[in-house]
Amino acid sequence: MAAMDDTDRQIVEALRADGRMSMRALADRIHVSRASAYARVARLERDGVITGYAALIDPVRYGYALSAYVYLDIDQRSWKSVRRQLLSMTEVDHVALVSGEHDILLRVRASDAVSLRDVVLTRLQEIPEVRSTQTVLIFEEATPVQELRK
After folding, report:
1. Cα–Cα distance between 76 and 103 in angstroms, integer?
2. Whole-number Å distance between alpha carbons of 128 and 110
3. How does DSSP assign 8-23, residue by residue?
4. Beta bridge partners of 95
5. Which candidate in 49, 63, 138, 139 could, as Cys together with 67 as Cys, close a disulfide (CB 3.0–4.6 Å)?
């Protein structure tokens, strides 16, 4: 993998803010030729720096009015098994193995309190390796990508 320079970082930040940006617009924005922009983006993709492009959604407008962080405590050595099960749940949109008091941190999106209750008290707690859960409601979110678009 080639070392990233300031131009590469500008490309990544521009595409994080607008992944649908044309190569012409990208080249103009960072002051390089279109050929250079194409080559650099291709290299960043090939090197695994840029791993894909996705549509960012507003969870509330998409039907997920309620979001929560859910901490899980799991049996030792069960991370891979639990991870597979968590990634299969459509309501779980982020899974992280963490250090500290808990083992796993999830971000869960649900349509309402009843749906969130079902995810936590039924689906998560029925995973045999899950010893306990703790749920923290999210009242408001801000992400760097949202701020870049303003």
Report:
1. 9
2. 22
3. HHHHHHHHHH-TT--H
4. 106
5. 138
Mean of the per-residue pLDDT values for the chain? 94
Tokens of 16: 């994080």
Distance from C-alpha of 106 to C-alpha of 130, rounded to nearest angstrom:
13
Beta strands in the chain (DSSP E): 66-74, 92-97, 104-110, 130-138
Judged against a pLDDT cut of 80, whether residue 146 lies above it is answered with no
Q: Which of 15, 115, 130, 2 is nearest to 72 (CA)?
A: 130
Tokens of 6: 């300031």
Task: Examine the pLDDT at 24 and tell me if it is beyond 80.
Answer: yes
pLDDT of the residue at 150: 58
More confident residue, 147 or 123: 123
Q: Output phi, psi for 56, to 5 deg.
A: -90, 135
pLDDT of residue 17: 87
Bridge partner residues of 109 (DSSP): 67
The position carrying tokens 């090939």 is 46
